[in-house]
Amino acid sequence: MLQRILVNLGLALEGISANKLRSLLTALGIIFGVGAVIAMLAIGSGAKQSILDQMKLIGTNNIIIEGKNSISAEEEETTEESADQPQEENSKRPYSPGLTLEDVDALVKVLPTVEKVSPEVVISTNIIRAGKLRKMRCVGITNTFFELNQIRLGKGAWFHQAHLDNGRPVCIIGRNIQTRFFGQENPLGKKIKAGNTWMTVIGVLEKRIVTKDKLENLGIRDYNDDVYIPIKTILLRFENRAKISNDDISSRGRRSSSRPGNHNQLDRVVVRVSESDKLQATADVIARMLKRRHHNLVDFEIQVPELLLAQQQKTQETFNFVLAVIAGISLLVGGIGIMNIMLASVMERIKEIGLRRSLGANRKDIVLQFLFEAIVISLIGGLIGVLGGIMAAKTIASYADIPTVVSLWSVFLSFGVAASIGLVFGLIPAQKAANQDPIKALRSD
Questions:
Q1: pTM of the full predicted structure?
Q2: Where do the structural domains in the chain lie, given as residue ranges?
Q3: Measured distance between the N- and C-terminal CA atoms of the chain, rounded to whole angstroms
Q4: Euclidean distance between CA atoms 10 and 151, whole angstroms
Q5: Strand 132-141 to strand 226-230: parallel, antiparallel, or no bridges (unpaired)?
Q6: Which of 27, 128, 194, 371 is least buried, going by the fewest C-beta atoms within 10 A?
Q7: What is the C-alpha to C-alpha distance for residues 63 and 361, in angstroms, rounded to an integer?
Q8: Which range among 198-202, 223-227, 375-379 shows the weakest confidence by mean pLDDT?
């Protein structure tokens, strides 16, 4: 049996070799179909991987609350009506304390779904050391910030509880800060001046490589460029916008043509929720809770990046499905092309079939010969298509700036589909060849 299979395979290879141009034309549909499958799956996998990378950067199950300046809904509606009225007739603007550490404590106490909370204060100030001066960001945080953003420590130590509670002048610096102000020198234990305060460096973050496009798309900072300070230290020694005077209260209470300055003690709060299916519900509760605490003023904005990315991923999966359907149609067309040309080949080789039958070949041998031809042509087309698809994916990634990932399973899938097409669409021509009457076949011209 094995010998018979090998003999028929050899005859199939001879038939392909004797008709190279026809075999190439037969394989073209498979080549383009498989190439399209590889390239499209690579684009889909690249897009999916890009979304997963973005999720890693922003963290999972996070809700972001940002402080902003706003007015109440009632005031917004009456702004135009009161523009022409005398100043003394305008109603008082409701007072809001803004986003504060007290809000953070309330979120932790009230919401059982909240796992961790990271408050942030960002100020821009001059950083000075050894005659070098640059305007950089100082970020007031707790150690939870590093955990939620998956930032690792390169050397040194995290903030101790005494640093966090007592407003100690210590800091952890990003890798770019070390390069700019310390060079090859070990910064641990040395001083750096931020604004008017000398800070002791206790740690250096591990360098985190993130492309500029991702930073802009996700709206996150380059963590390598910042100086990190305990949040109570930055509120005590730098700026605490929650401390107000009588003039501040008076200016906030009046309606004026100009918007008030930033009155939020915190710039941002990142909330980690214990379970992803509770993200939206927790965000809604946080919004109602903060609105009530801020006297019906919406001076904050809540975002759920993971839900936005999940929606983006769902859209991408739909797009990938459409691409796969288009590629499948290309393979189907290629299979029909194989069947058509193989049927034409059977009609051209009727005398050859009759000769083989007269020499002792049975119908099974004829079926195997033509079936092997179709399968070999499909596999050769599949191999060329895989190579072409990989080259197309790399070309797209290079020139179109679209991420592509060629996975091993997509290669095996394409090969399997190519072999299956050869088997399925080669079966009808093979059976037609086997059903030829040998006597009539020998008499044909």
A1: 0.58
A2: 2-53+310-443, 69-298
A3: 33
A4: 61
A5: parallel
A6: 128
A7: 74
A8: 375-379
